[in-house]
Design brief:
The protein is mainly α and 309 residues long. It has a domain of 205 residues. Helices cover 48% and strands 3% of the residues. Strands 1-2-3 form a three-stranded antiparallel beta sheet. Helix 5 packs across helix 8, helix 6 packs parallel to helix 12 and helix 9 runs antiparallel to helix 12.
Length: 309
């Protein structure tokens, strides 16, 4: 036999010797698999892994077991009453917010004219009409004239205003030939009060009311000098109410003169109080404007007086 045949024979013998243990291992594995298949009844079941096991297997998270209460025991659990404290929250009111207002230092009553004259331009945008006011003893004039007017009287010597330059006149052409000494009312004579009405209409009502309460200590002092003890605001409102209640007659307001002074021919008009006769002389259009302005002032005056208690 040659050398090549000897080499092949030796290789085959070696491979047969090496493959022997491998065959034995495979046969044993097959036998074990068959035995397990027979033990399970010939069925295979895929088992899903429990999520809790995944958590257990996770090295980063640890599951914490919670105590489980059986359903039949839940109804037996008594809940402890929870005590609640009711806290009442008060609403925010604007009055609770303290807004500091600059303090106003009032002068003495006898020295108040210069102080008032300096502040009068705050009341109106028609400053040129302030020349209609008398700048002497202004607060006392206002108090005395208002007190008399509220009673139906006219205190001309204490009037806050200068007298109109145009005097009262009648329509001379209207002399009734049938009735001697009877004239018709001249509506043009009421125009002499137009500037006074314009001044009143130009006054800011809110500023006027606020200003009145600012100077009210001086007003009360002047009112007490007349012997009164009550609040002057009531007297002021009485005077305003007299104007608001005034009704213009529907008649022609014929005039007659038995002396130097003219009188109303109708007894009802002549019997009116002096303050009411002044309102008649002012004229219908001017009186309607005055009523409108005083109505607004009176409403704000009442509201402010009530808020101050």
């Amino acid at each position: 036999m040659d050398n090549s045949s000897q080499i092949k024979t030796s290789e085959q013998d070696g491979s047969e010797k090496n493959s022997g243990p491998l065959i034995i291992f495979i046969a044993a594995f097959v036998l074990v698999a068959i035995a397990l298949w027979q033990f399970s009844g010939g069925k295979t079941e895929k088992r899903a892994m429990d999520p809790s096991e995944l958590l257990k297997e996770s090295p980063k998270e640890k599951s914490v077991e919670q105590p489980v209460v059986p359903e039949e025991d839940i109804s037996a659990i008594e809940l402890a009453p929870v005590e609640t404290e009711i806290v009442q929250i008060e609403p925010l009111v604007e009055d609770d917010i303290a807004i500091e207002q600059p303090a106003i230092t009032l002068p003495e009553l006898d020295e108040s004219d210069a102080w008032l004259k300096g502040r009068l331009p705050e009341l109106t945008w028609r400053n040129e009409l302030l020349t209609l006011l008398i700048n002497e003893d202004m607060i006392r004039r206002f108090v005395v004239f208002t007190d008399n007017f509220s009673q139906g009287l006219l205190a001309y010597e204490h009037s806050p205003f200068i007298q109109p330059k145009v005097k009262f006149s009648v329509d001379e052409q209207s002399l009734n030939s049938d009735e001697q000494n009877v004239w018709q009312w001249d509506s043009a004579t009421s125009k002499r009060f137009d500037l006074y009405v314009d001044l009143l209409r130009s006054v800011d009502s809110t500023t006027l009311v606020n200003w009145y309460f600012e100077v009210k200590p001086l007003v009360d002092e002047a009112y007490s000098e007349l012997g009164y003890e009550e609040d002057f605001t009531y007297t002021l409102q009485d005077a305003i109410t007299r104007v608001l209640d005034m009704e213009l007659p529907k008649s022609s307001m014929a005039l007659t003169r038995t002396s130097v002074m003219y009188k109303y021919q109708e007894p009802e008009l002549e019997a009116l109080a002096d303050s009411d006769k002044l309102l008649l002389r002012i004229g219908k259009e001017n009186l309607l404007i005055i009523k409108s302005v005083l109505l607004e002032i009176n409403e704000k005056l009442t509201k402010e007086a009530n808020s101050r208690g």
